[in-house]
Design brief:
five-stranded parallel beta sheet, elongated, 51% helix, 5 strands, alpha/beta, Rossmann fold, single chain, 2 domains
Length: 271
């Protein structure tokens, strides 16, 4: 179960922020992915951050939501949009998501800091300031999810910010990033030190047993699952659509059979 306030705070209600960007997406949960959830649970306990990186339809957001539901931490969710490539906008939303659970987190009202002309230095200073304020604003474990980070990957400030922030995060903070591409930062250092876990598209693919489990939930056979797996290459969205389509086709076939049987029975009764 994830812990998040049921409604926006009164402070957020009086701002210009789009509050839907700070809300957990509604995701139908078709199947638990214990293999991936175990990997993320291990990352939560041993690393400062996790990156889920894959193309659209691979199941990034569904996995992130499912993990947030079971990680037993407060949850700060931020859905990035393309206009957030401007540094003040990005940090305003990120701050707002954190303040829902850590009201003492001050945000970034330092005008000189935000308007510093050098993007690299500004991003590094903000990352360091953020680490300090996170450590000072509370001790309750917090999961910060940044969804769709790829939409601002062209921003010059992103690389120094991510490179500086992630290795320095306090022990009670974990950052989970979903993105169609890896963040433009030399994260291999963190991976070599085992402080970052990356779940890529290959890891996100359904294997045969997971596909069979998914199709069983739809009342479909193992044979159907194996055929669908071969056609979809294990991609989550395509596999789910395949299952929905087959389930609908089977229901229609059953309905037609029942209708034919009923019509035949009525015809026999009338003879």
């Amino acid at each position: 179960m994830f812990l998040i306030e049921p409604s926006i705070t009164s402070e957020m209600a009086n701002t210009h922020l789009i509050v839907e960007k700070l809300m957990v997406p509604s995701q139908p949960l078709c199947l638990k992915r214990p293999r991936l959830l175990a990997l993320m649970e291990k990352s939560l306990s041993t690393c400062t951050s996790t990156v889920i990186s894959a193309r659209a339809g691979a199941g990034k957001t569904t996995l992130a939501v499912d993990f947030a539901r079971q990680c037993r931490r407060r949850l700060a969710w931020y859905k990035v949009d393309a206009p957030d490539g401007e540094l003040p906008s990005f940090f305003e939303y990120l701050t707002a998501s954190i303040r829902q659970h850590r009201p003492a987190f001050p945000g970034f009202t330092d005008v000189d800091l935000l308007k510093e002309s050098n993007d690299y230095q500004r991003a590094v200073r903000i990352a360091e300031r953020m680490v300090y304020e996170l450590a000072e604003s509370g001790t309750e474990p917090l999961l910060i999810v940044i969804e769709d980070l790829h939409l601002v990957c062209d921003s010059t400030w992103l690389m120094p910010f991510v490179t500086r922030l992630l290795p320095l995060l306090p022990i009670d903070i974990h950052v989970l990033i979903t993105s169609r591409t890896m963040p433009p930062a030399p994260l291999w250092r963190m991976r070599s030190k085992q402080t970052l876990t990356v779940i890529d598209e290959q890891a996100l693919k359904f294997n045969r047993s997971e596909a069979v489990d998914l199709f069983q939930r739809f009342g479909l056979s193992q044979e159907h699952a194996c055929i669908a797996l071969d056609h979809t290459h294990g991609r989550a969205a395509a596999l789910s659509r395949f299952a929905h389509t087959l389930q609908l086709a089977e229901r229609r076939a059953i309905d037609r059979t029942n209708s034919s049987a009923l019509a035949l029975s009525q015809a026999q009764d009338s003879i």
